[in-house]
Amino acid sequence: MIIMKKLLCLLLIIFNFSSVLNALESFDIYQALEKSTVRITIWDEYDNDEDRSSLVGGSGIVINRIDDKYFILTNAHVVLEKYCLFYDEECDDTWYDSTKTIVVDSVLSNYEYPVSNNNIVFWSELDLAVIMLDLSLYETTDIFQSIPIGGIWHPLMPVYGAGFPIVLGNN
Question: CA 44, CA 74: separation in Å to the nearest integer?
């Protein structure tokens, strides 16, 4: 009976310790994502404070940094007004017109950063796009952190994604 109690206590200690390790790993993942996830918003009349309104939005993840240039992975349908993967063959991918502005920010950043179409590349067959954000153009102390690739996140593991839908409270 004493051996059973010791074994049960040992199992409880191992179980509690492994739960703490999983919680810490989840918290580490949360911290990494918080520092590398950005919000991408399409604004109408962005430079006009009185008439400015947000149209749509999405999210992205900072995947690389070279000096003050950040590379953000997102979906092509986020940065294009009309994205043709979901339409018939008689369709052309269309950028937003000049009255619309694509803006990048995060919950940790102090400023919003407009991005021109010249700083975006997309792959229409994959619904992927990369935004290049050059923070050297701004007087800012904001620093985005690229998501660590490798280590415990191996390249052949499943990847899960989540977006930033425009819903009540997400503004």
Answer: 20
User: Cβ(100)–Cβ(55) under 8 Å?
Assistant: yes
Single-letter residue type at 41: T
Position 102 scores a pLDDT of 94
Coil vs helix vs strand at 115: strand
CA dist., res. 89 & res. 34, Å (int): 38
Mean pLDDT rounded to a whole number for the chain: 77
Taking phi over 0 as left and psi of -120 to 50 as alpha, with beta for the rest, 113 belongs to: beta
pLDDT < 50 regions, the chain: 8-24
Contact yes or no for 107/35 (Cβ under 8 A): no
Distance CA 80, CA 122 (A): 9
pTM above 0.90, yes or no: no
Sign of the Cα pseudo-torsion (13, 17, 22, 26, in order):
positive
Amino acid at 4: M
